[in-house]
User: What shape does this take?
Amino acid sequence: MRQPFVAGNWKMNGSKQSISALLAGIKGAMASISKTQVVVCPPAIYIPEVEALCADSAVKYGAQDVSFEQAGAFTGEISVSMLKDFHCEYAIVGHSERRSIHGESDELVAKKFATARAAGITPILCVGESLQERESGTTEEVVARQLNAVIDLHGVDALQDSVIAYEPVWAIGTGKTASPEQAQEVHAFIRKMIAEKSAETAEKVQILYGGSVKADNAEQLFSMSDIDGGLIGGASLQVEDFMAICRAGDVSVK
Ligand code: PGA
Assistant: This one.
């Protein structure tokens, strides 16, 4: 059985004040969630704040990125041991905004994935195709390449202690959600690809959908057989919307 999982990616949004209000709202509504693992990923500078605010709740937190190096002359980077210092349990790696704006390659993402795992931080590995790639019929090829960068380097079993997020780039922040069928098709492809190497890992790994998930489409998306929850951007900044999405997770246990 795979536990439903909903993570909020706050991206570069928020302030001390707004984060405190947002988390108070989330914590206040956690009683209505029974099965879904709820995670928030604040901007790194607010992680200490979030650690304190989450101390007495079931809400977990993660980083939006992490360095593949351990320490040293890497200006602006944050290491796994720094995240561990603040009991961070998750780190998003390979978000499409990091890949496209910051030029992160499949190889770099695979290194970040391994560094996080080795430190006991669960990587949330993002994969997904651009609009151009979808229109040219290369969605599966792109997703397979991104996933194989990790599998080839670290073996398929590395995915057992990780979460995968399928996020079609054309659906992120655009209001254009993939239809449940479109998303399911790619999720099933990912699971099949993993199953060809390890049936056990394929059965265990949580595969989230991300890209304009909203309160009114979450339940339909999460009810698909290979969708185990979501990675939520915009809608994770509003308590009601985010918690409605988390409740949709509860009805989607597979
Ligand atoms: P969105 O972002 O929900 O705002 O589309 C999702 C993401 O980038 O993880």
